[in-house]
Structure formats: structure tokens, C-alpha cells
């Protein structure tokens, strides 16, 4: 291993990500999604709802702080530069009535968000290492998203018997220039604010009945 | 084989031998550096190398095991084969490091083969009592702290790790820093179930605690609400609280505890928890007191009760709005002395309302005085700002009402009836005593229903007036604590007045102490009267300020110097006590103690000595003695009275009074001779008596003619018929006296017969010591009793020198007006005017006078001057007047020289007058 050139691992990772991006990740039925899954506690559904509510409550602040930290022209030309259609953020349809579909949709959304937050956090640590609040909020949101995914996985695997969900991830920002990194982050977070708000609205009545 | 390969082979061989030489030993021990469990058994093997067998001829049976420097008993050895020896320890606690394998080389020389370090310890115990709490550090920052019991000391380095995982994700371990029983996890994620456990691991093993599974949001201790504000509303009984929660509602909903207290109280009240069980940021507290300052504080926790209560928030205070006073002020009166008999001076006094009753700031009091019939005056109203009002009222019964007013309105009226007289029943059995650290007063209520009681009290003191305080109690009460600053060791006079609807009862009083102590000092005792066997002691009672309690009794302690002390208890009402029986003429020391319920205090010691004699003993001795003395005196007086004639004869013989002598009748020339004196003309007849000197010398009888002696015969005859008036000059008669002075016939006669010389005195008109004689009298100027003696007892002067030497006699005609007004005697005058002169001087003066007269008689001027000088010397303290008198004496002398002397024969010495 000592003799492996230093740029090999990032290269392999980059190749791997490039392979992932652009197509749905196929979940192997015998894959790790439902491995080690035990019986979900009864409070997991409520915890899931509260996590969505918590993310919804903090999403707008996260986006605002992100914009502040990126400076012009993002704060002044938000609509042009941060068009949400510029990303492949999963859609979340509010007219779903099935709990299972909602859970699956949520899983897709937050799986995408979790990967995107990883990229954004890495880019901001590089671009704005002194933006403590932004970084803290990115870390908190990332961890909350991971917790939400954990709860959704538990619910899907145990309550809804879903062992496979096709998820998508966004483009890797590796190799992008600074503007592109900031723009992609802005587009993702702006879309995240919209989607998590819809999820919170949809999830509330359904989970309260569950 | 090339050179290179050959060189390599040689190098390898040399390395082998060098290694063998440097690093090989004769043996080794397995296991190498073991970590052993305390108390377990352990076996070590010492394996000898073959090389040592060859060179040293060493065998395994020669191996000696040692722990440090101690040889392990050989019973624990076992020789397995020729090169291996083992040692077994059944309990590793007996082990110590190092454990060495040794051999005895060459018979006795011990050589170390190998040694190992042994580490002893224990495997970790299962951590117990794992628990976690999430502390909120800020609005978004939470720290989860998990604690556990690490178990026993393992004596080894033990690694504790807090492990955690989500359902599908394992989280990083938490490694304690510096401790082994707790660990802090930052970046806590809520709403995801977390499984937590502790793993302990060391060289001897590992242990894992029980797994606990929880949502961290259920173990949060939130920060207390902050920015608490208290606002009053229009309602006087409510206050609205508002605050900010420091945890967002999306994280958790909260419930609250709200506590509050009156600002000057330490007792907290709490809003019912069910009223604050929902998430909120404000609350209105009700049922508060008007115009009262309240202090509020609150805390919160998760609404569902999971987790922990926060700390109490900072305290904030607020004041409720004002309301009308809830009750009237307590009202009482004091009746003062009025100048008019038909009116009273009534001091109305009332207390300020408590804050809880005033419900605001009292702005004024309104007083209404309404007389009852038969008085027909209209009610009078007063508005005052103070708490008293003095009125002059006509005698009668009055209803007084007082209302307190604040900004909102007035209180219900307080009513007090002031009757014309206190004719109602009083309370009975009034008692006061300390109770629960306060002064309790209780009484038995009268039979009639009482509206309320007024209790008055004041502190009794010698140094200040009794300043009265008072309080009201309900008519149903029969006891109360005095509400005021009641001090210990002070006497309080407490009076209870019952108030009825239509009158009052007389107050009944008692005295009490909140706390009694020993008297500040003891009484100062002293004696009022001391007798032989008793002493009356008196003392001054202690003042009230000195008593410190009720004086229950006095104790008098007395003893002699060497005797035992005797104690006598005395009633405190007494101020005098008689100690008896006491020993006579004995020194006693006495002191006095005053006792309260708490003890006694001694006063100063007083000493006294009992008398030697009792009352009447001296009288019993003295009175009889005196009576006996008086009786003897009386008897003596009676005896003397009975024998007065005899006594008089011996002690106080009758001296013929020359003024009564008939000799004057036979001196026909006297008036003319006297008229011859110019001075005699200055005075009327009878003012002066002629002076004549009669000296009869027995030897010179012959020189007198018969005619000259005739008058003596007459005198002799008349003496026999004299009535006995004596002038004190015995035996001779004086000239020109209108009265006869005849001495005792016998004596006179004998004197006439026996005495060769008869002296006659100068006869002066003025009396002795300002006593004016009724008649002209004769006195002898220098005549003293010895002269009488010589007259009466001529035998005392045997006719020796004195008879041989003619006695210097003279009769001086006293013509000086000064002398007329004063004493007739020069001698006595000198005595009187020179009181400082001592007796010796007087004696000298007398002698000088006598010598002076002698000089005058001699008519020698220089002699006379000398005499006057000597006389002045003798009277050195005398004044000028005295000297003047002396000059007068000289003048008199000169006058005498000019005046024809008595025709009576005189026997004079040289310088004297010759018989004319």
C-alpha cells in the first residue's frame, strides 16, 4: 500500500461516484438496507415525523445562511443562479395517500439530500472555513438527515416490508470550480427547503393517524 | 562458489556465532512477562539450553526459583525432564516480580539463568448503573452525559468506552477523558432511538454493561425559560407572566411550574401544575392580593414528563393594582384629664392597616363622632392624615367610627363605643406567661357576650414612662400573643379591656416577663439598729430595671469571721428584718441575695458588730449609782442645813459691814474734809464716801491722846450692840458710814484686843461689779481675806517681822469719775479691762499696785514713774485705755497727796503718811 500513488484513491472514488451519479442505485434485496434491522420501536413513526418537522423548521435558516456566506451574485440573483430545476432533486408529491409511498418518497428525498449535504459541507469547509454557523448547521442537518434515514429504513424494512428503494444522488462537486460548487449547493438547498416543507405538510396528518 | 557467495556464507556464520555469543543464555522462562489474575494459579517453566548442559554440566534439578530475593519452596518445583523445571503457585497473590530461574554452578555458586516480570491484576467488572442525561447548553447545543459505575479497581490499565448506535448505524465511541465513569457526547441527535452501553477492557478481559435504549430527547434537562416579565392588569388580583423558552417547540413541547411569593416572605406558593401543563410563553396568575409585591420564578420540562426539570428561572417581581381597604383600622381611645368637670379629653388612636388590608396607599382617615341620647349634638366628622385625633367631648356616650381611604375607595368603618362609664363586667383570671418564645396573655371571658377585647401593655421601667401599646382581639378569643417588640428581662404591665355593644368593662391587669433572668444586682443591706443579741437589717428594694424577673424571695446570709454562714429567706415584700440571736460584741458579715425564678444575685457584704451590753444593762448599773449619789448628796445637804450655823461659823463667818458701822457717826470732820476735795464737789453728797485710813498700832497707843482713842471705845461699845451686818472686813469700823457695821462681838472684840493693827477699807459708793449699793458702803481697797485672817487670827502673825514692819495700809479716796462708774477696786478694774492678761500678770499687777501705792504714799515722783512703767510692762497686751487708767491712778494718787488724810493715827513706813 505504501507504494500506491497518492492520487489513486481519490481517483477511484471519483470514478465510483461518477458511476453512481446519473442512474438510480439499485438496492440489492440481500443488500445492507435491511441488514441488522430489528423490530422498530413504536415511537419511530412519531420520531420520523418530528425529524421532518425539525428539518423543515431549520431548512430556511440553513438556506439563508448559505446564501449569506456565498455573497454576490447569489444573494442578488437568486432565481437566475439557484433555479431548483437545475438539480435532479427527487420530487415529492403531496397528493400521495399511501403511508408506504410517502415513506418511500421520503427515503428517496433524504437519501439524495444526505449525499448532497456531504458535498456541500465538504465544499463549504473548503470555501468558507470560517463560516462556523453555516458549517454547524450543515453538520446538524446532515446528522438529522442520517437519523431520519435510519428511522425510515426501520419503518420500511419492518413496518412496510420494503427492502429495496431506488434512490438517486446528485452530481459530485469534485472538480467543479468554486462558482459551480456554490451554485449547485444553492440549487440543492433551495429545493430542499421546498421539498421538506411539502413533506412536513403531508407527513403530519398521516403520521398522526399511524 | 563465487567470491561473493563465499563472502556471504562467512558473514552468515560469523553473525550466527556472534548472535549466539551475545544473545543466548543458558535458558529462559515461559510465559514471558505474563499478566495474571490475582488469586489464580500460575505455573512457569524454566527451560535450559543444551549448550549450558554441555559447558556447565547443569541439569534441571539444579534450578532454584526465586521471587525477588526469596527462594520459592522446592515443594512447588517439578523437574519435567533434564532441561525443564516448573514452579507452580496456587495463589498468584503471593507472587511478586521478578520471578527468576537460577542454578547452583560448581556446587554452591548461584547463577541467574532468566527472569520475568509478573503483572497482577483483575479483569474489569461489568459497568453498572449506566444512565444518561442531555444538558441543554444553548438554544441549539446539547451535550449528552452518560455515567456509570466502573466497578472494582483492576490494578491494570482498563479502557472504558461508551458505545452507541442507531438502529441501522453505529456511532463513534465516546472515550472518557481523565475519568472512567462518565463520558460526554456532543452533537446529540433527537428523535432517533439510541442504544448505549459501556465496554470496559484490560489485559485480563473485557466487560460490557447493560444496553440502554432511548431517544435523547426524552432525557433532556432544558435550560429554564428566560426574559421573564411580570405585568399587572386592571384587576387588582392578577398578574400576567410572560417569558421565552430556550428550546424550540419542534424539539419538544414543554410544561411548566410557576412559583410565587410575597416579596417580604420566604414561603413560595405554586400555580397548580395542571394549569401549566401545556406549552406556552405566558400565564396569568390569579387570586393575588391587591397592591402586593409578588416575586415569580418558573421552570420547565418536556411536556410528557420525560426528562428532567430545568433549574428555576431568574426571579422577577411585580405589584398588583390597588383595591379598596378590606377592613377598617383597629380603633381605641385614651381618656385624658380635662380642665372642665363636664367634659372629657378623648384621644382617639388607631393603627395603620397592614399592607394586606390597606390594599394601597392610605391617603386619609375619616372620623365620625356621634353622641348618643340624651346628648343631642349632631355628628361631627373629621378628616385626618395621622392615626390619632384628640377631642374635647361633653360627658356622655359616643359612637366613634373611622374609615381608611386609598386611591380606590374607603374601608368598612371601625366602630368604637365610648361609654359615659365602664359599667360592664370585666374579664377574670387574667394570666400572662411566655409561650413559644412570645408573651401569651389569657383570660376568662365575662358572662356577657363581648364584641372585642383591647389589650394594652407597656414596659415598666424606672427610667422611662410606661409607653402604652395596644392591640385588638375578637370577642370570641380568650387569649392571644402580644404583637409587638417584647423584650426579655423586662416587666410588662398588661391590661385587658372587654368591649361590649353598649359599653365597656374595667380593664384587668397583670404583670409578666417574656423571659426572666437573675437580678442585675443584689440588695444593699445595712443595719438600722444593732443590739447585743440582735440586729435590725434594712435594705432598699431593687428597682424594676434591676430585677430582671419577679423577686420571689430574699436570702440573708450572715456569719461571723470564723463561723459558718447562716441563710434566712425573707419575703420579698419586706424591707426590714431582725437577725437574732446573735453573739454579743461580735463582728458579723451579712449580705443579701435577691432571687427570681432563674436564680439569685448577691449584694455587697456589710459588716457590723453587736454591742457588748444589752439594752437597760447600763441603766441598771448607772441609775442605782446615781440614786445613791443623789441620796448621799441629799443627806449631806440636810446635814449641812441642820448644822448650818456651825458650818457658817467655820466657813463663812459674819463680817461686819463697815457701812453700817457707827464709826462714821463719830467722824465729824469728814464732811468738811471731803468737801475740801474738788472732786468731791463734783459729785453730790452721798455719791462718794470719804476715805480714811485708820491704822492702829498697839505700840503707838500711847502716842494717841485719849480723845483720839475715844471713838474706838465707842466703837467697841457699839459693836456689842451691832446687829451683825458684816462687810467682810472683820474687826474694824469705817468712817462716815450712815449704817453701822459691827463684826461679831466676840471676834471683833478679840480682834480689837489681840490685833495690833486694824485695817479699814476705802469706802466707795458704787457697788461691787456694777451693783449699786443702796447705801454708802465701805470697802477695803486691797483688802483680802488674809487680812481678815490677820485680823481675826492675829496669832498667825506673831509679832515678828511683820508686826515690826509697819504694814503699808492706806485708804484711798476714790474721786475718779471713771472709777465711780466702774469698779471701786483698782485691782478688780484692772482685771476686768485686761482680760488677756494672765493670772500671773494680774498677780504682778496687784503687787505693782501695792508697790505703786506705796510709792504714792511715799510721794516720790520718779518712783511713781517707775511703778507706772512696770505696771505698763506687766500689762503689755493692754491697750491705751489701760495706760490711761494707770495715769488716772497717778492723778488719784496726787489727789490723795493733797487731800488731808484721815485723822486716824497711821503707822507708816518710810515715805508713808504720818499720823495727823
Automatic annotation (TrEMBL), chain B:
Domain Fibronectin type-III positions: 224-323, 329-426, 519-613
A GO molecular-function annotation: cytokine receptor activity
The UniProt record lists the keyword Secreted: no
Transmembrane stretches, start-end: 621-641
SMART domains in the record: FN3
Membrane topology: Single-pass type I membrane protein
Keyword Repeat: yes
A Pfam entry, by short name: Lep_receptor_Ig
Locations listed in the record: Cell membrane
Signal peptide: 1-26
GO BP of this protein: interleukin-6-mediated signaling pathway
Family to which the UniProt record says this protein belongs: Belongs to the type I cytokine receptor family. Type 2 subfamily.
Name of the protein described by the UniProt record: Interleukin-6 receptor subunit beta
Gene: IL6ST
Amino acid at each position: 500500500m505504501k507504494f500506491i500513488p497518492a492520487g489513486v484513491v481519490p481517483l477511484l472514488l471519483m470514478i465510483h461516484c461518477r458511476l453512481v451519479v446519473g442512474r438510480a442505485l439499485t438496492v440489492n434485496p440481500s443488500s445492507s438496507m435491511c441488514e441488522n434491522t430489528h423490530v422498530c420501536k413504536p415511537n419511530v413513526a412519531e420520531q420520523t415525523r418530528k425529524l421532518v418537522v425539525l428539518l423543515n423548521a431549520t431548512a430556511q435558516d440553513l438556506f439563508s445562511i448559505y446564501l449569506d456566506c456565498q455573497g454576490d451574485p447569489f444573494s442578488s440573483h437568486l432565481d437566475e443562479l439557484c433555479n431548483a430545476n437545475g438539480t435532479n432533486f427527487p420530487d415529492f408529491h403531496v397528493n400521495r395517500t399511501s403511508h408506504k409511498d410517502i415513506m418511500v418518497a421520503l427515503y428517496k428525498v433524504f437519501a439524495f439530500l444526505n449525499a448532497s449535504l456531504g458535498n456541500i459541507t465538504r465544499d463549504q469547509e473548503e470555501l468558507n472555513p470560517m463560516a462556523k454557523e453555516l458549517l454547524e448547521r450543515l453538520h446538524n442537518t446532515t446528522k438529522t438527515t442520517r437519523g431520519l434515514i435510519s428511522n425510515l429504513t426501520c419503518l420500511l424494512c419492518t413496518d412496510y416490508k420494503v427492502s429495496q428503494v431506488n434512490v438517486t444522488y446528485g452530481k459530485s462537486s469534485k472538480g467543479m470550480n468554486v462558482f459551480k460548487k456554490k451554485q449547485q449547493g444553492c440549487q440543492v438547498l433551495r429545493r430542499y427547503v421546498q421539498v421538506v416543507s411539502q413533506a412536513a405538510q403531508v407527513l403530519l396528518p398521516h403520521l398522526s393517524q399511524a | 562458489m563465487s567470491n561473493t557467495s563465499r563472502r556471504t556464507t562467512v558473514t552468515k556464520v560469523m553473525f550466527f556465532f556472534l548472535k549466539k555469543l551475545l544473545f543466548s543464555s543458558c535458558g529462559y522462562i515461559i510465559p514471558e512477562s505474563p499478566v495474571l489474575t490475582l488469586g489464580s494459579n500460575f505455573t512457569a517453566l524454566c527451560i535450559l539450553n543444551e549448550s549450558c548442559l554441555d559447558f556447565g554440566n547443569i541439569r534441571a534439578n539444579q534450578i532454584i526459583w526465586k521471587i525477588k530475593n526469596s527462594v520459592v519452596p522446592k515443594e512447588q518445583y517439578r523437574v519435567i525432564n533434564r532441561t525443564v523445571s516448573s514452579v507452580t503457585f496456587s495463589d498468584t497473590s503471593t507472587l511478586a516480580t521478578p520471578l527468576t530461574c537460577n542454578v547452583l554452578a560448581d556446587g554452591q555458586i548461584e547463577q541467574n539463568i532468566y527472569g520475568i516480570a509478573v503483572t497482577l491484576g483483575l479483569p474489569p467488572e461489568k459497568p453498572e448503573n449506566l444512565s444518561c442525561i442531555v444538558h441543554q447548553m444553548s438554544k441549539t447545543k446539547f451535550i449528552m452525559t452518560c455515567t456509570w459505575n466502573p466497578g472494582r479497581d483492576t490494578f491494570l490499565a482498563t479502557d472504558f468506552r461508551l458505545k452507541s448506535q442507531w438502529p441501522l448505524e453505529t456511532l463513534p465511541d465516546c472515550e472518557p477523558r481523565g475519568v472512567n465513569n462518565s463520558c460526554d457526547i456532543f452533537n446529540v441527535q433527537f428523535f432517533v432511538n439510541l442504544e448505549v452501553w459501556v465496554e470496559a477492557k484490560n489485559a485480563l478481559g473485557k466487560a460490557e454493561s447493560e444496553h440502554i435504549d432511548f431517544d435523547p430527547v426524552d432525557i433532556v434537562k432544558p435550560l429554564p425559560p428566560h426574559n421573564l416579565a411580570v405585568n399587572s392588569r386592571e384587576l387588582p388580583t392578577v398578574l400576567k407572566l410572560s417569558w421565552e423558552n430556550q428550546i424550540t417547540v419542534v424539539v419538544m413541547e414543554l410544561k411548566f411550574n410557576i412559583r410565587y411569593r410575597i416579596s417580604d416572605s420566604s414561603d413560595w406558593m405554586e400555580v397548580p401544575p395542571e394549569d401549566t401543563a401545556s406549552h406556552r410563553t405566558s400565564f396569568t396568575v390569579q387570586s393575588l392580593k391587591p397592591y402586593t409585591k409578588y416575586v415569580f420564578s418558573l421552570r420547565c420540562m418536556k411536556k410528557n414528563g420525560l426528562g428532567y426539570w430545568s433549574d428555576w428561572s431568574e426571579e422577577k417581581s411585580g405589584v398588583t393594582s390597588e383595591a379598596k381597604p378590606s377592613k377598617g383600622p383597629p380603633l381605641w381611645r385614651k381618656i385624658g384629664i380635662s380642665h372642665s368637670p363636664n367634659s372629657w379629653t378623648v384621644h382617639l388612636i388607631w393603627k395603620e392597616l397592614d399592607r394586606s388590608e390597606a390594599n394601597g396607599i392610605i391617603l386619609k382617615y375619616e372620623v365620625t363622632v356621634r353622641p348618643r341620647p340624651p346628648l343631642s349634638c349632631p355628628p361631627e366628622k373629621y378628616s385626618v392624615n395621622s392615626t390619632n385625633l384628640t377631642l374635647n367631648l361633653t360627658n356622655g356616650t359616643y359612637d366613634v367610627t373611622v374609615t381608611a381611604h386609598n386611591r380606590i375607595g374607603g374601608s368598612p368603618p371601625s366602630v368604637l363605643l365610648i361609654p359615659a362609664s365602664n359599667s360592664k363586667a370585666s374579664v377574670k383570671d387574667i394570666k400572662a406567661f411566655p409561650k413559644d418564645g412570645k408573651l401569651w396573655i389569657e383570660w376568662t371571658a365575662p358572662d356577657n357576650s363581648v364584641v372585642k377585647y383591647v389589650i394594652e401593655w407597656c414596659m415598666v421601667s424606672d427610667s422611662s414612662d410606661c409607653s402604652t401599646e395596644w392591640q385588638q382581639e375578637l370577642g370570641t378569643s380568650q387569649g392571644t400573643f402580644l404583637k409587638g417588640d417584647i423584650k426579655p428581662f423586662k416587666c410588662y404591665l398588661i391590661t385587658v379591656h372587654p368591649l361590649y355593644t353598649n359599653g365597656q368593662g374595667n380593664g384587668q391587669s397583670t404583670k409578666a416577663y417574656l423571659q426572666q433572668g437573675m437580678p442585675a444586682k443584689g440588695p444593699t443591706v445595712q443595719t438600722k439598729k444593732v443590739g447585743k443579741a440582735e440586729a435590725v437589717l434594712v435594705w432598699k428594694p431593687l428597682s424594676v430595671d434591676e430585677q430582671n424577673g419577679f423577686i420571689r424571695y430574699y436570702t440573708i446570709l450572715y456569719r461571723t469571721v470564723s463561723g459558718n454562714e447562716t441563710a434566712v429567706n425573707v419575703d420579698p415584700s419586706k424591707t426590714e428584718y431582725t437577725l437574732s440571736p446573735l453573739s454579743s460584741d461580735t463582728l458579723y458579715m451579712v449580705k443579701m441575695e435577691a432571687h427570681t425564678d432563674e436564680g439569685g444575685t448577691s449584694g455587697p457584704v456589710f459588716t457590723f458588730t453587736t454591742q457588748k451590753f444589752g439594752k437597760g444593762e447600763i441603766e441598771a448599773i448607772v441609775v442605782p449609782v446615781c440614786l445613791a449619789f443623789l441620796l448621799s448628796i441629799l443627806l449631806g445637804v440636810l446635814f449641812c442645813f441642820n448644822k448650818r450655823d456651825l458650818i457658817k461659823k467655820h466657813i463663812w463667818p459674819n463680817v461686819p459691814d463697815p457701812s453700817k458701822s457707827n464709826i462714821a457717826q463719830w467722824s465729824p470732820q469728814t464732811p468738811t474734809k471731803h468737801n475740801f476735795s474738788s472732786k468731791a464737789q463734783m459729785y453730790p453728797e452721798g455719791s462718794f464716801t470719804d476715805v480714811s485710813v485708820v491704822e492702829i498700832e498697839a505700840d503707838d497707843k500711847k502716842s494717841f491722846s485719849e480723845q483720839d482713842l475715844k471713838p474706838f471705845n465707842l466703837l467697841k461699845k457699839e459693836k456689842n450692840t451691832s446687829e451683825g451686818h458684816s462687810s467682810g472686813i472683820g474687826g474694824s469700823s469705817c468712817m462716815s458710814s450712815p449704817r453701822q457695821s459691827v463684826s461679831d462681838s466676840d471676834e471683833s472684840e478679840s480682834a480689837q484686843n489681840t490685833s495690833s493693827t486694824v485695817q479699814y477699807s476705802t469706802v466707795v459708793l458704787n457697788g461691787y461689779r456694777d451693783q449699786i449699793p443702796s447705801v454708802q458702803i465701805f470697802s477695803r481697797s486691797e483688802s483680802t481675806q488674809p487680812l481678815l485672817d490677820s485680823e481675826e487670827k492675829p496669832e498667825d502673825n506673831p509679832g515678828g517681822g511683820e508686826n515690826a514692819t509697819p504694814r503699808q495700809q492706806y485708804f484711798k479716796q476714790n474721786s475718779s469719775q471713771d472709777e465711780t462708774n466702774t469698779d471701786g477696786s483698782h485691782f478688780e478694774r484692772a482685771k476686768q479691762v485686761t482680760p488677756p492678761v494672765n493670772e500671773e500678770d494680774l498677780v504682778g499687777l496687784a503687787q505693782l499696785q501695792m508697790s505703786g501705792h506705796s510709792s504714792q504714799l511715799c510721794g516720790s515722783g520718779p518712783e511713781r514713774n517707775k511703778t507706772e512703767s512696770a505696771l505698763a510692762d506687766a500689762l503689755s497686751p493692754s491697750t491705751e485705755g489701760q495706760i490711761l487708767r494707770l495715769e488716772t491712778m497717778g492723778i488719784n494718787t496726787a489727789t490723795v497727796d493733797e487731800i488731808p488724810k484721815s485723822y486716824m493715827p497711821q503707822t507708816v513706813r518710810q515715805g508713808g503718811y504720818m499720823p495727823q
